[in-house]
From TrEMBL:
<keyword id="KW-0378">Hydrolase</keyword>
<dbReference type="GO" id="GO:0052816">
    <property type="term" value="F:long-chain fatty acyl-CoA hydrolase activity"/>
</dbReference>
<dbReference type="InterPro" id="IPR006683">
    <property type="entry name" value="Thioestr_dom"/>
</dbReference>
<dbReference type="InterPro" id="IPR029069">
    <property type="entry name" value="HotDog_dom_sf"/>
</dbReference>
<comment type="similarity">
    <text>Belongs to the acyl coenzyme A hydrolase family.</text>
</comment>
<dbReference type="InterPro" id="IPR033120">
    <property type="entry name" value="HOTDOG_ACOT"/>
</dbReference>
<dbReference type="GO" id="GO:0009062">
    <property type="term" value="P:fatty acid catabolic process"/>
</dbReference>
<feature type="domain" description="HotDog ACOT-type">
    <location>
        <begin position="11"/>
        <end position="123"/>
    </location>
</feature>
<protein>
    <submittedName>
        <fullName>Putative acyl-CoA thioester hydrolase</fullName>
        <ecNumber>3.1.2.-</ecNumber>
    </submittedName>
</protein>
<dbReference type="GO" id="GO:0006637">
    <property type="term" value="P:acyl-CoA metabolic process"/>
</dbReference>
<dbReference type="InterPro" id="IPR040170">
    <property type="entry name" value="Cytosol_ACT"/>
</dbReference>
<dbReference type="Pfam" id="PF03061">
    <property type="entry name" value="4HBT"/>
</dbReference>
<dbReference type="GO" id="GO:0005829">
    <property type="term" value="C:cytosol"/>
</dbReference>
Amino acid sequence: MDMELKGKTVKESRTVKASLILPSDTNHHGTIFGGTIMSYVDEVSAIAAMRHSRKPVVTASIDSVDFIVPAKLGFSVCVDAFVTSTGRTSIEVFVKIISENLQTGERQLTATSFVTFVALDEDGKPTPVPPIIPETEEEIYLYQTAPQRIKMRRERRNATQQFYDSLDITKDI
Ligand SMILES: CC(C)(COP(=O)(O)OP(=O)(O)OC[C@H]1O[C@@H](n2cnc3c(N)ncnc32)[C@H](O)[C@@H]1OP(=O)(O)O)[C@@H](O)C(=O)NCCC(=O)NCCS
């Protein structure tokens, strides 16, 4: 039987990273590559999940990412990640990406996503994580709406599995 782990607040693991958008981060439109943002999303949310669990974690899934506005060369991009919900061994992290025109101070929401991590023990097996304690209005809203997102992910996963089962997906690799 699992030992009851002590709950932790969201602010104990919240992780923020700001970066300057350099020429090497941009495409031929002078805006940041989507893949660069995805990499920040994975990295910053993984730190939040490891701060929460104090265990190694693997990324189990990243929800769809909608890029709302482009972030331009010379802007900063700030990635803010915090734990919104926990299961037995999984941790859901919400990620906001905010771009800032450093000359005018104008900030815009560039993208959001949810990333799910699974904490692993020394044998690489899923291991229990502490429950999360939401405190602010935003944290409570995201906590209360998590079961619906988890249900949608499970349904998507089952549909994907059925798709794999109907094809020999690795045959031609
Ligand atoms: C994630 C992984 C550890 C889950 O292993 P598993 O054998 O399916 O484990 P379980 O069925 O016991 O599920 C463990 C938890 O993960 C959750 N989970 C599993 N797959 C998931 C997915 N695709 N999305 C969200 N949650 C998922 C389960 O709901 C369960 O949560 P809970 O304990 O909080 O209820 C395994 O699929 C894996 O190692 N995947 C590769 C991870 C990786 O390498 N990531 C880097 C990118 S390739």
